[in-house]
Amino acid sequence: MHSLISIALLFLGASLAASLFLPDSLELRQIMQRYQDELEPNGTKADVPLRSRRAIRWSDREEILQLHNKLRGAVYPTASNMEYMVWDDELEKSATYWAEQCQWEHGPKDLLMSIGQNLAVHWGRYRSPAYHVQAWYDEEKDYTYPYPHECNPWCPERCSGPMCTHYTQLVWATTNRVGCAVHTCSRINVWGEVWENAIYLVCNYSPKGNWIGEAPYQTGRPCSQCPPSYGGGCRNNLCYKGEPQIIKCETKMRDKCKGAACNRYNCPANCLNKKGKVWGTLYYDVQSSICRAAIHYGIIDNNGGLVDVTRKDNFPFFVKATKNGVESFSKYKPGNAFTVSRVEGEYFYCLIFINIECKYSLFYNIKSEICILVFCPANCINEPSYWAPVVGSNIYGDGSSICRAAIHSGVIKASGGYVDLLALDKRKSYAGTLKNGIQSERYTSSALDSSLRFLSVTQFSGQKP
């Protein structure tokens, strides 16, 4: 004999209210940090159970994440702006805190306006967490997608079953982070009935979804309306921040570009004198060499570099010009075109130290909080700690070497790479750990002005504050 129940959080507010609690804002992190601190072994709240290990097995975590992305990429009608979802440790920690309370309701209340949340509970025979995720998605059979012409301006709610909000949160296009926890509750009151030894699953989402009057995603060709920060990357119908594709000087746009948004490309050096032809100025015919068009427009020079490309269908004509040493040709008939844009970045060395300030506002989006973008060279791991110290673990003090802290955190390897940095409020203490060949220092003084956390994994947003 077994039972299982799920509930999902529905946000009762107009879309304008979404701007009041932006995802990953300073306020959200401060709230979540409180629950994180309560789970630490040295926490001050004695009534909160101590946590000696993660509240979810690695295999369950991977299964949950992979299933989320598989289901998000398979929605019908197809989504044009569905973002790839990643695991978020802080969302996991806040989910752990709530799961351990064994209360069959959404919570904690001060966090609910900033996150989405799906809950499930069962007792009896074993059910994997992925079983509940699939059950949430299966509400799709009772949901009718509201097409744009039906939203005037608010979209109608069309759920013919008891609940569809698990499904809509799971496939909310702009929700790109999830963190879950599983806890065995010795006793939990489920709508008036006490269950013993029940398995409680809590999944927290950010940015939150389920805004009344809005469709969960935009319909259209997959990845055709991805946010610019994805650089045109697409994986399994999801907007994805992938590694830039390394191409040759002669590679044509028509050979690489698919959809309205195209990938980010890494052009080699010495393309200036290669044979790849270019048609047009500003707007280039898709038969043009990507890298030589980028040189023509001035996005890169003969040393090569990263280029973002966006496609434009059915451009009327292409005008010739000689610019930056590249001669382009004319074509006076319509054809598919593309534009090139610069990928901004700042280059630092191993011994540059973090000492920056960011202006936080509840009304800024996450890109406004990215303070600095760096490129770390190879072999920073070999710099001595007295010359390039690292203070902290995961979150680092502002006296740390950027590149060695990035290696310590696992964001980049010893071979170097790009890193996005996010400034946080200073912490009371910083842990010292040995990770990835670097021993970080422990620090308990309040002298440090701020903290830094590394966001991107061997890639960057392409935007500067």
Automatic annotation (TrEMBL):
The keyword Coiled coil does not apply. One of its GO terms (cellular component) is extracellular region. Coiled coil: none annotated. PROSITE patterns: CRISP_2 (PS01010), LCCL (PS50820). It comes from the Eukaryota. The keyword Flavoprotein does not apply. It comes from Cyprinus carpio. Residues 1-17 form the signal peptide. Residues 243-338, 352-440 form the LCCL domain. It is found in: Secreted. Pfam families: CAP, LCCL. Its main location: secreted. SMART domains: LCCL (SM00603), SCP (SM00198). This is Cysteine-rich secretory protein LCCL domain containing 2. Keywords: Disulfide bond, Repeat, Secreted, Signal. InterPro entries: Allrgn_V5/Tpx1_CS (IPR018244), CAP_dom (IPR014044), CAP_sf (IPR035940), CRISP-LCCL_domain (IPR051957), CRISP-related (IPR001283), LCCL (IPR004043), LCCL_sf (IPR036609).
